[in-house]
Amino acid sequence: MITTKLRLTTPVSVSMAAMLFGAAAAFAAEGPSEQHDLWIKGGTVIDGAGQAPRRADVVTRADRIVYVGPPKQFQARHVIDATGKVVAPGFIDTHAHGDPLEDGSFKNFALQGVTSVVLGQDGRTPGYASEHGTDEDIPPGGRRTLEQWLQAVARLPLQTNIASLVGHGTLRLQAGVGISPAVTPAQLQKMRGLLEQGLHAGAYGMSSGLEYVPGRFAGTEELEALAEVVGREGGVVMSHMRSEDEDKIGAAIDELIAQAGYGRVHVSHLKVVFARSPQDGDRVLAQLDGARARGVAITADIYPYLAGYGDLSLLYPPWAKTREAWEQALAKDRAKLEAYLRDRIELRGGAGAILLADAPYTDKTLAKVAAELKLPAEKVVIEVMGFGGPNAAHFIMRADVQDRLICWLYAAIGTDGGPWIRHPRSWGTYPKVLQEHVRERKLMTLEQAVHKMSGLPAQIAGFAERGRIADGYYADVVVFDPKTIRSEATWDHPDRPPVGIDEVIVNGCVQVAAGRLTANHCGRVLRRPPQAKLR
Ligand SMILES: [Zn+2]
After folding, report:
1. How far is the CA of 374 from the centre of ligand 1 (A)?
2. For 168, which of 158, 208, 265, 500 could close a Cys bridge (C-beta 3.0–4.6 Å)?
């Protein structure tokens, strides 16, 4: 480890090597006649599989990497000097939000080195309803099947590759189950059929959002029946689990493990909420490692921030999660609802730990709004914010717990961010890990971090021939400076691009050059090949 780190952080040895290479190149200039597209020369390759860094040139032709190896002379249309830089596989985000049909630019991803995102998270199939509203907001005519959505997205100019999951909550809506806890055999058959259709259209698996409506009403039997279809097709079940609270996360993980009898399962945005000691993180890891030791293919993704993000319904009691139940609770037992919200806000660290993210409250805490209005916070939630209320960052995690979780061998780095999510994770996740967790705090090595950002998430999502710097793989590449890379995204300014990510190449096409977006649109829609049986 020490020698590889020295090699990365000692400019003298790198520039010496560059000089030597320069001299050698002058002699070797004769000969090669093959025309290549990109020649990324003089960099330190970190391959994404977790292997130690090595000096190597990378050459691409069309959308593929065609050479990774010792410096040689090539003829290429475009040369990138990566001296002193790391050349890594483009980052793969297994839990991303946004819809290219509605949000336009995905530059927040591209500028932090992301070359592929997986959408359709938390139980919502993209295209069926807007991610910005509730499922009731869109008239049936506005809905698309996943196939139609994929086709529409494929016609757009894209800055990253786009993959999708089928959402379990959407299956419930499509099959007419809605918020009913019971599912008839005919409805379950319909859900299984729709899921299979989505997987055949190219979805990489199914997502569930068991803390949300309508996913929260699903029972174990229903989830297992759907997991069977996903497993048969070689996909992955990704879950925003039923609870992330310290006292309930164990049962939630067990519920997910129960769906692993047919294939791979995955914990989305791994965190322990309301943890009281670092041991709460250790317990979760022991449970996950225990499952893996028994052969359960379970993985996770995680972002490097201590606040989650969501609307104020996160504070609501289980008996008032739907609009109807909320209005009933208000009419029938307002005092009980107020008392619940008061306790819940207190448990989550108080109204000062809730930073509102939508106009007209942007960047004010709930405590501040309450003080301005001279109302208790729970009354603000009920009387001022209305059902759902604005999105907010909720500061509910412990650093010592999240540090343990992010170092788990099978935890990929993912943003849980999106173009419209006002949280620094949308712009800063990958550079923050490379800056803080690797360079400053040395919680993991550079090659471990890069593996968590590329090779591991490629395996998790089931992407073939992506996530590695290797001959024959797709040319998804990020070139960054390990000495200067840092996130500039803050809570006040969550949409500032990072520093130190110089080049981002997607399918052999330069999407980011010298840290700025190019006019290219290099992204594609990714579809899971029907025969894929990745395990
Ligand atoms: Zn989620």
Report:
1. 33
2. 208
